What we know:
Helix content: 55-70%
Radius of gyration: 20 Å
Oligomer: single chain
Number of strands: 0
Structural class: mainly alpha
Shape: elongated
Largest sheet: none
Amino acid sequence: MQGRPQGDELPQGIDVYEQMMNTFAEQAKTFWKSRGPAGEPMALGIESFAQMQRAYIQWLRQVKRTSGTALPGFTFDTWPGPGDSEGGGWDHRPS
């Protein structure tokens, strides 16, 4: 995907990401659980990661529904670089 996304690409991208994340979480949990009790903490960590990602996905969808735009304030404009933001000047040697 190059350039600015079209209207239906963002929801499709979120759906694809959700499916990919769920597949990863299930496979990773299965792997770590197969290691017995020693793998249980890893499986729990993966479940925590998956829950956080699900909450983020839900938030992305909610923002789309309530604002009418994909992500308010989000642009695809080029970042100006460190000299024009965050105080700037930190990348220059003193004179």
